Amino acid sequence: MADETTQQADKAVPKDYNELLPPEGDKDVGKKLYMILDAILKDKEDLGLPEKWSSNYEFGKNVHWKKDSKDVPLSSANLMFTHRQRTVNELTDNNPTFNVVQIGSVPDDELVEVYLHTAQHWWIDQEQQAVFERSVMDGETFNCCVEKVVFNPELEYGLGEVETQNISPLHFGFYPVRSKNNQKAEANLHFRPMTVREAKRRWPEFADKIKPDSEYLEQIDEDKLREVVSGKANRLGDWFASIGSVIKHMMGNTEGTIGTGEEDELLIVEGWVKDRSIEEVEIDGKKYLQPKYPGEIRQVMTCNGGDIVLEDRPNPSINPALAVEEAAKTYLFDKFPFILTQSITDTVNPWGAGDYEQLKGLQIDFNKSLTQFNLFKKKAFGLKLMNPRDSGVSNEELDNVPRTIRPTNALVSQGIRYVDPPRVPAELPMAIDMTKMLFFLVSGEFELENAQTPGREVVSYKAIATLLERATTMKRGKVRNYSRLITIRGRMYFSHVQNWYTDDRYIVYEKDGESKTARINADVLRIPAKLTVVPGSTMPISQVQRREEAIGLAQKGQIDLEELLKRLDWPDWKTVVRRMKEGPFSAFLQMLGAMGAPEQLLALFSELMNTDMKDFKTAQAQGKVPDFNAIIKQLAEGGGQPDPAQELEFAKQQVEMTLNQAKTDKVIADGQLVEEKIITERLMQKVKIMGVTFDEEKLKLERARVATEIRAERDRTAIDNKKAEIQSSAKGRVQGPYREKGLSSNNAK
User: Fold this and answer.
1) How many C-beta atoms surround the C-beta of residue 300 within 10 A?
2) If we measure between CA atoms, which residue out of 435, 343, 362 comes closest to residue 80?
3) Distance (Å, rounded) from C-alpha 277 to C-alpha 279?
4) Which residue has the higher pLDDT, 251 or 47?
5) 3-class DSSP state of 172
6) Among 445-449, 461-465, 665-669, which stretch is predicted with the lowest mean pLDDT?
7) Which of 275, 401, 721, 731 is exposed most, by the fewest CB atoms within 10 A?
8) How many helices (H) and strands (E) does the chain have?
9) Model pLDDT, residue 186
10) Would the pLDDT of 219 be above 70?
11) H or E stretch including 270?
12) Distance from C-alpha of 653 to C-alpha of 661, rounded to nearest angstrom
């Protein structure tokens, strides 16, 4: 059905025009928009979305049984409501933490800080947290939520302000219907009921033509959801069954009207459509071609089946007075002002998935088991008294009035007794506990549920932090999706600011314990920056954990008193810090001041109490400490009324003395440190030199020892050789012939 309607919508486009809607002023603009609406509604019907959304809403309102029963006490404990409420509370427990990412050069670094505080101011001042909570509630009920961010010129007493609107999924759609991202689609439609009186007020030029659309609104209006509680509403799927015939009826020429009262309602169809039409403009005598619509986005509003086109204008998110080059830098220049967010990411269905789809079956089983248990309980409390017919005792005698009854005989009297009530099967309570356990296990809250079981007390802040981290992990996908919702909402906000904040406005923020005021307007905030949100910053934070950590850090000296009191949320912590800084003698000085002590003396005493004894002795040695008697004499000569100029000069001298002394001490300390480092380095060098000398001497001694051993070995070898030679010569003289040496003989004559 959706494909046939889509083809019908495409055929309605003139052949010589390639855009989704006919050109501005064409009589079929409204008709074409209604054809797109028809395709959107039929696609929702094919996906079963109305039926699913209606069922989810019923379960949230504790309407779990189709029909009532007179015989069986139908019971339901709405675990799904508990899960949804807990999830919404966790995801919206805190305001988001914003960050600003600079994507270009900024003329003044302080502008980035102003940019950040502007987002925080808007979030609090315009109660954006309440809007965020409603969006999360829609997301957890219908599997998705839709927001629309527009600039409303009627807010803030006519000054105008950026407004975030919660839109029911029943009143939103995109085309083509198979698009996975509404920003990638060719059209986003917002269709909603409006009273005839309001429509005539907004578009007085069409007041005589506007008619109510009661019959059509019966098919799509979400007011039917309000009747779920009373059980009188039809299923949303039935409402959409005849949508095609209704649209065809409304698109035709009808003579009569369904209603004439101005409190009757009509359907307003608002379409944001991509239109890439080109127009010719003349600049400085030259003709150029440029897109007709800023960002190629066009807005059309129509009613009464498309017969009346209320508005047909360029992108309303862009200020026409702003240069195209500057407008192109704003976020909404080429984007639709709608944010479609899924509760659980579904890569196939752009309308998302939710927890209800996983929990409905367990909720039904839980209700059945609970009903069976209550049925047994009812039978158990409805006691039956057995009185045999032949007992001889009438039923009227068996009452609570003390009396004497006379059965026929003793044997028959044994038959007068109460019938034993049916016993509850042991499996039934076990089934209830198991179903409940599975419910919280599937929902990802099993640990939290066990932690809150009677008899178990979670005291340690570490245990609380662990449970919160576990809950955040189980909801990580939701946290990412909803954090993205806040990020896009913030970027859309700044886009409107950069287009429509033409007048100066002022914000107040706190920095370093001081209140500051900043001027903001479109020119100031038109800087190359991008707003982001810290994922999970809206999740709950254990205050017990924060306080215990602060106390531990303060005891270790890692944070000061001011930061500790902030973490503890101490009332009027600024006064406490001021008193601590004044010192323990603050009351003493106040009493002296009440007694009429001169301000110069009070300032001197205060300075002395805040001066370290070492600094005082150093200043005294340098002759920088003023003479107390001279001060008293000066005050006495001045009649006890010192000159304000002299008093100010004295205070300046005291401050300069303290600062100079501190600087001098620092220079001396730094010099001593450098000198000690030099001495240490010299000692190390000497040690190293002595080590090298010792090694050299050791080597010399080793070399001398080795040389001595070599010489000794050589001498021993020479002696041995000499001895051998002598022995050999002696043997030759005794045994062999005598031989003379030399030229002359030694024989005697």
Assistant:
1) 24
2) 362
3) 7
4) 47
5) strand
6) 461-465
7) 401
8) 25, 16
9) 96
10) no
11) strand 265-274
12) 12
- What crossing angle do the helices spanning 427-443 and 79-91 adopt, rounded to 10°? 30
Does 11 have pLDDT greater than 80? Answer: no
- Least confident among 66-70, 152-156, 216-220, 631-635: 216-220
CB 649, CB 696: distance < 8 Å: no
Using alpha carbons only, how large is the chain's radius of gyration in Å?
Answer: 48
State the first-to-last Cα distance of the chain, in angstroms, to the nearest integer.
164
With residues binned 3-state (H G I as helix, E B as strand, rest as coil), the percentages for the chain, rounded to 5, are 55, 15, 35
DSSP codes joined into one string, 46-62 = HHTHHHHHHHHHHHHTT
Contacts of 629 (CB under 8 A, 6+ apart): none
Q: How far is CA 72 from CA 59, 62, 361, 380, in A?
A: 20, 18, 21, 14
Residues in Cβ contact with 372 at an 8 Å cutoff, skipping those fewer than 6 apart: 428
Average pLDDT over the chain reads 78
Q: Residue 117 and residue 523: Cα distance in Å, rounded?
A: 16
Tokens found for residue 241? 């069954």
Residue 531, classed as helix, strand or coil, is strand
Tokens matching residue 325: 């080059």
If we measure between CA atoms, which residue out of 345, 346, 356, 351 comes closest to residue 87? 356
Query: How long is the chain?
Result: 749
For residues 393 and 416, give the distance between their C-alpha atoms in angstroms, rounded to a whole number.
Answer: 9
Round to whole Å and give the CA distance between 477 and 352: 12
Q: What pLDDT shows up at residue 622?
A: 76
| Residue-level pLDDT at 684 | 66
C-alpha span between 308 and 310 (Å, rounded): 6
pLDDT digits (tens, 9 = 90+) for 575-591: 666 667 666 666 677 77
* 463 CB-near residues (< 8 Å, 6+ apart): 451
Residues 311, 309: Cα–Cα separation, whole Å: 6
Task: State how far the alpha carbon of 375 is from the alpha carbons of 69, 368, 379, 383, in Å.
Answer: 12, 10, 6, 14
Q: Report the interhelical angle of 599-609 vs 644-735 (nearest 10°).
A: 20
CA–CA separation, 228 and 163 (whole Å): 30
The maximal CA–CA distance of the chain, rounded, in angstroms, is 193
Copy the structure tokens of residue 141.
């009920």
Helix (H, G, I), strand (E, B), or coil: what is residue 562? helix
CA distance 84 to 86: 5
Find where tokens 């609380």 sit: 464
**What are the residues whose beta carbons fall under 8 Å from the beta carbon of 56, sequence distance 6 or more?**
141, 142, 143, 354, 356
Please report the pLDDT score of residue 640 as a whole number.
47
Element (H, E) at 443: helix 427-443
With 0-12 / 13-18 / 19 or more C-beta atoms within 10 angstroms meaning exposed / middle / buried, residue 7 is: exposed
Q: Nearest Cα to 92, choosing from 84, 100, 104?
A: 84
| Exposed e or buried b per residue across 386-408, where buried means at least 16 C-beta atoms within 10 angstroms of its C-beta | eeeeebebeeeeeeeeeeeeebe
Q: Which two tokens stand for residue 202?
A: 């907004």
Structural domain spans, the chain: 386-417, 542-582, 586-712
The whole-angstrom separation of Cα 689 and Cα 682 is 10
Count Cβ atoms below 10 Å from residue 183 Cβ, excluding itself: 14
What is the Cα–Cα distance from 87 to 93, expressed in whole angstroms?
10
Element (H, E) at 308: strand 308-314
Facing residues of 79 across strands? none
Residue with tokens 């015989």: 71
3-state DSSP call for residue 730?
Answer: helix
